[in-house]
What does this fold into?
Amino acid sequence: MPTKTTILTLPKEELVHPGNRACTGCGLSIAYRIGLKALGPDTILIVPPSCLTVLQGLFPVASTKLPCLNVTFASTAAAATGVLEALKAQNKEHIKVVGWAGDGGTADIGIQALSGAAERGDDFIFLCYDNEGYMNTGVQRSGTTPQWALTANTPIRGKLQQKKDVPSIMAAHGISYVATCSASFPLDLYDKISKAITLPGVKYIHIHIPCPPGWGFEPRYSVKVGRLAIETGLYELYEVENSHMKLTGASQKIIDKRALVPVSEYFMSQSRFKLMSETQIEEIQNQLNSRWGRYFESIEDIEES
Ligand SMILES: Cc1ncc(C[n+]2csc(CCOP(=O)(O)OP(=O)(O)O)c2C)c(N)n1
Ligand code: SF4
It folds into this structure.
């Protein structure tokens, strides 16, 4: 079994300069800093318009020490394929190609290019940082905004539709690796990116990103809010390899303890959910209880057999 990274074994080299243009308490800042440590210096990043382009800084300054290609909104994965081909032509295939896009640039406008690359089996990592909205342009709803969240264009009742399950869509492509992570569990993110580097084809990693201004909480609570999302069972940390799904880290701990934190704690921590009724919260709690109840039962079946 590979050893898990700890705070003491994390590489010391920083590939993100101290100070950047992200908001205070931004979960993306944490994920980006730790993610680049896992990717290492031989990496080319492909980034569409998003908070990450803002975080990078305006020419002539840059917050990252890696080469980064800013591309159009829909074309991250197609550009990654192009960069791969260019590297092949130059015999520089040791350089890792990484698409790093927001949920809008992945779940909505970027999905056809990503699906095409996954089907072709192009060899790159695609990271979606999911702050659950088009945050850079003022908090509009995206396909991955959760149901009932208030956004700039769902201001009356919140979003009526459910969150799009992009990791499952990617897993359905039969690619070598799909994983979910959270900025609030950065060492888990580090280990999953490190694993993805060793595997062929498109590897897809979905990172849940607390966003203080977009979700409506004080910046100092970013890590806490992100942890609650996992500890309530609303979001799961898992890996899919060879079509086999396995819960990991803090989600596996829920199985060990057989206990979920009440989901109301998560909803009450953010003003975007302030119009949710008790019935709506109860409905989601019931859905979580039955989903996790099935996990608990299947583990008990395995333990008994
Ligand atoms: C084709 C196109 N449509 C719209 C925009 C404007 N735009 C720039 S960034 C952005 C939001 C990106 O949202 P997301 O991908 O979720 O990343 P986030 O801003 O949340 O980090 C939009 C709509 C654009 N640049 N190109
Ligand atoms: S809007 Fe949200 S995701 Fe974007 S930089 Fe600010 S905190 Fe980060």
Summary: The longest helix spans residues 278-304. The mean pLDDT is 96. Residues 49-51, 73, 101-105, 131, 133-137, 142 surround thiamine diphosphate (ligand 1) (CB under 6 Å).
